[in-house]
Amino acid sequence: MKLSINLFTTLDGVSQSPGGAKEDTRGGFTRGGWLLPHFDEGCGEAVDEWYRHTTALLLGRHTYDTFTGHWPRVTNPEDRVATAINTLRKYVVTSSPTGEVWADTTTVLSSDALDRIRELKAQDGDELQVHGSVRLARSLHEAGLVDIYRLLVAPVVVGSGSRLFEADGPAHSLAVTSGTITASGVTSLVMEPREFVAATATVEDGKDSVEEGARYHVPQTAR
Questions:
Q1: In whole angstroms, what is the distance from residue 64 CA to residue 59 CA?
Q2: How does DSSP assign 109-123, residue by residue?
Q3: Residue 82, CB half-sphere, CA atoms under 13 Å: how many?
Q4: Mean pLDDT throughout 122-143?
Q5: In this predicted structure, what is the pLDDT of residue 216?
Q6: 3-state SS, residue 107
Q7: Tens digits of residue pLDDT in 149-166
Q8: Phi, psi (5° rounding) for residue 61?
C-alpha cells in the first residue's frame, strides 16, 4: 500500500482544529473552526475523492477519539466518507486501549509505530491513509514514509498551531499531480515527494539564467 497524508491546512500551514473551536485546543489553540466558513461543494468532492482510495485508516489517538464522537452517528448510506470511516480497518497509534466503538480497530504502539507502519505499507492494497492526526503525519513525513500528500488549503491565516511542515524538518520538493481551486478559494492539491533541488539566479551572455545548485535526495530506504 501507498501511505498518504490527507489534511486540511491554513495558508500559513496550520492543520490544528479545522472543524470547530473545541476540536483540538492543545497548546492553548483558540482559533479552531477556521475551515468551515470556506468548505464548499468543491471541498466535499475533493474529500470524497480522497476516500475512494482508502484501504485502511491510520490515525493518531486524538483524531481517533474525535472521529468516534462523530462518525458512528452518521448513518446515511450515500455518505462515502462516513461509510469508509465506519467500516474500514483502522490502525491507531496509541499506548492505551481504544474502547469498543469500532471492532475493526487495531492499536499500534507508539514505541514501535514506524516499524509497524513499514510492515503495513508492505501489504496489498491501494492506500493506508492518514486523516487529521497532524503530529503523526509530521513524524511520518520526517521519516520519509509518505508517498502522497493531499492538502485542502483554506484562504485563512491563524498564526500558531500544529503544522505538517516544521522549520527543522527535511527538505523536499513536491510534484503536483493534481491542483484545483474551489468556488470559495480553497486550493486542493495532490502531490508526491521529489528530491529537493536548489538553484541560483545568474546572468549568462547578458541574459537572465538559472544555475542549478544543491540536490537533496528523499530517503527512499525509509519509505
A1: 6
A2: -GGGHHHHHHHHHTS
A3: 11
A4: 96
A5: 59
A6: strand
A7: 999 999 999 999 999 998
A8: -65, -40
